[in-house]
Amino acid sequence: MSTPPPAPSDAATLRGRRVVLVVAVLASFVAFLDGSIVTVALPAIARELGAGTGGSGATADDGAGLALQQWVVDAYLLTLGSLMLVAGSLSDTFGRVRVLRAGLIGFAVTSVLAALAPDPGLLIAARALQGVTAALLVPSSLALITSTFSGPAQGKAIGSWTAWTGVAFLIGPLTGGALVDTLGWRWVFAVVVVPVVLTLVLMSRLPGDAHRGRDGAPARVDVVGAVLAAVGLAGPVFALIEGQRVGFGTWYVVLPLVVGLAALAAFVWWERRAPAPMMPLTLFRTRSFSVGNLATVGIYAALSLGTLTIPLVVQELAGLTATLAGLVTLPTTIVSLLFSTLFGTLAATHGPRPFMTVGPLITASGFLWMLLVADPIDVWWQVVPGVVLFGFGLSVTVAPLTSTVLSQIPAAQSGIASAVNNAISRVAGLVAVAFLGVIAGGALTVGGFHRVVIVVAVMLGVSALVSFVGLRERTRAS
Known about the structure:
single chain, mainly alpha
């Protein structure tokens, strides 16, 4: 007997869910793409705008050139990470669709500003503004999924979201390399406008969502909490970045650090007492949420440090073009597409503990393979196999990790819960990138790369241990 076709209402629901998933993927795709596509453009940016940082023709080996490259990455991550909690709260309060639309429009505008920047200062400022608008995208897109899907379907949807946003993170270097070698580095920023426009068109098919508060209360913004969170995250991170360059005794490093730490303490105090807290501290009573976020620190610090370093090494030490440097990461993209949805579904069915334990260890083994790198560098043997292992480990890890963090959180708080996890991952990555110069020994040599690889592997191993010890055997992402 054949199975009858779904009722019209069921078919409409399925179509609506597909649109939600596509919009969520594209919205976060934009933010991830911009965060990764710029990596292979950094040497070209330093060469062209190097005069603004201390002399024409600055290279990655010059202190000024390295500082410029770091700030092109860090300015984006600084504002993205420091405003993520605020953006997640706005998503819960004013609706995911409204916040996503505002973020996409702002992101398109700031991307064009970055493409047109005539000097390092304006480029860094544009990157900071990009981070502000990107903060509106990621937590809202993920909250859109968790408030639409449930049970195993949610795990599968998060796996698809992870796979395709991960593709953005990983094809960025390939796309960026091709643009740098053909049209120039400015197109690395301008091209982001294309997926933004496509997403806005698709969003016209989604119903609008009205202002609302948690538990049906009138919409309220925790202004005090928002200010304290932004200052508390931005201050210490800025101090860490600049402290590496000018020393931690400088007043404009010490002052943001002290003010930021004080703001974080005040934020926790305020959130305990606020009538409508931006980040309810009761979230951390959920074991899967707390353990998942703790594992996130090491996983994303390691990934940010590793994925920034690989394109730089294969260009500046191995002599590959920007296009070939991007091609080196292509196997990771393919592996992520093939397996992320599968492991997201398996984690929803069997629990995330085995995947969040084994996945980081596989990823670490991929980076440890790159200890084979030696002069003269054979990229296709010493780097690419490690990249494949890294990609498979990433596929095993990321979807179960995301599902775990959000699995026990009420839908009405999914925006802020997603924002907490994303803020932790971004700030962890930013801090790791800030220490690149220290870990590598001031210049990216083969020995410096080996030190980076070892640090990355250790952080991943610690995260695997946290997951193994902290998660219950049958904690389900449902």
